[in-house]
Amino acid sequence: MGRAESNTSPSVELYLASTPLQILNAVEARYALGDAGTRAVLILFQRRWEHYTAAATLPDPLIAAFDEVLPLHLDLPASDGNPWTAVAALSRNRRSVLGVLARLSEFLIDRVVVTNQWNRDMRYLAAKARAEVVFADDGTSTASYLKACAEWGAGADWWLGFASRGRLVNLAAALLYRLMYGRFMLRSRPDLMFTCYSALAEEAGFPVVANEYRWVRSMFGVVRKGADSSGHFLGAPFVERGEVSSQEYLRWLREAMAHHPELNWIYIPHPAESGSWLEQVSRETGVECKRMNGPYELSLFEEAWPPAVIASWFSSALENLQMLEIDSELWAYRIPDGALSSSTLRLAAQGFYERNTSSESRILVKDLT
Fold it and tell me: In this structure, are residues 311 and 287 in contact, taking their beta carbons and an 8 Å threshold?
């Protein structure tokens, strides 16, 4: 039941998320935009193994922000490459999304907060809810989405359907979703952006409320730099997602850490990096791997001694930590041009380096060679 229905029903706000960072930004949206008297439901879209792992290890303060948490189990379409398997999976996923809405039919849905603009199942639920739609941050992919909207307008929602890797399979997927789900993308465009990329949102023509991570600040204050000589390197699932070969990624990592051998490096994996891959990383580089519970921005506050340096490739965590005034040095190592297979990731990297080569940024962009 959405905003077009009777207003005599109790109200509810829906927050749609999958990853630790998305859940953190859902919490920030809840406290910045939500009505304290309205029921808040977090819906966990669980499609990949890392989504289930993240849900099982979420810090209590993130869960406590919501009145109810609903897991939504979804299939990966065409995991075996069979188009008929994809059709069956999308049919089941569509029924699952509609089933969640049916479960909430006694409520008037006031607002739907979508934390992954690229997730078609989240967009479909938002369209069917007929409520106010808010897009919240999902790291650098949100910046890429906003840049696409500034360039393509409403066409960006179709563009994202097939340009994420520049391969025909993604065009086929977009067409299949349209066939199975209908024309839902335009109906799920945001009424409001809640983002730390305010300037990009304004350029794209969206109303915007700045995400300044006020909940994190109010809960944990400011982390000061420790006196040790450690460095955290925030990883990325480039190998797991088929973007680069394992040997190329490990070569980049060794080069980055070799620039500052005086630091005691610890590799902090992305949630989508598997345990077997981390064993290879540790074995071939000699670096310790340490998996965090919850988003890194939150986990850092639990460290007894924050690192002297936090480095990565083009992680939004660096930009978020800069906003949170973390006293550690922030470094971004520039990935070689054209090295990633995904055009969307290449654009995200390009935008990140452009944003952070100005004198206003505390993030130091470094070349590998």
Answer: no
Say if residues 255 and 221 touch (Cβ distance below 8 Å). no
Query: Number of helices and strands (H, E) in the chain?
Result: 15, 13
Distance CA 48, CA 50 (A): 5
Residue 275: CA count within 13 A, CB half-sphere = 2
Per-position DSSP letters for 272-341, written without gaps between them: TS-HHHHHHHHHHH--EE-PPSS-HHHHGGG-SS--SEEEESS-HHHHHHHHTT--SEEEEEEPPTT-SS
Q: 307 with 230: CB under 8 angstroms?
A: yes
From first to last of the 369 residues of the chain, give the pLDDT tens digit: 455 445 678 999 999 999 999 999 999 999 999 888 899 999 999 988 888 888 888 888 889 999 999 999 998 876 656 777 888 888 999 999 999 999 999 999 999 999 998 888 999 999 999 999 999 999 888 998 898 888 887 767 765 544 444 455 566 677 778 778 887 877 788 999 999 999 999 999 999 999 999 999 888 766 665 556 899 999 999 999 889 999 999 999 999 999 999 999 999 999 999 999 999 999 999 999 999 888 898 888 877 778 999 999 999 999 999 998 888 999 999 999 889 887 778 888 999 999 999 878 999 999 987
d(CA 54, CA 293): 8
Q: Are 100 and 43 in contact (CB under 8 A)?
A: yes
Taking phi over 0 as left and psi of -120 to 50 as alpha, with beta for the rest, 148 belongs to alpha
Structure tokens that stand for 209 in this block: 């409320």
Residue 295, classed as helix, strand or coil, is coil
What is the end-to-end Cα distance of the chain in Å, rounded?
Answer: 56
d(CA 184, CA 33): 25
Alpha-carbon gap, residue 50 to 103, rounded angstroms: 26
H or E segment and range at residue 42 = strand 39-46
**β pairing state of 309-312 and 230-234:** parallel
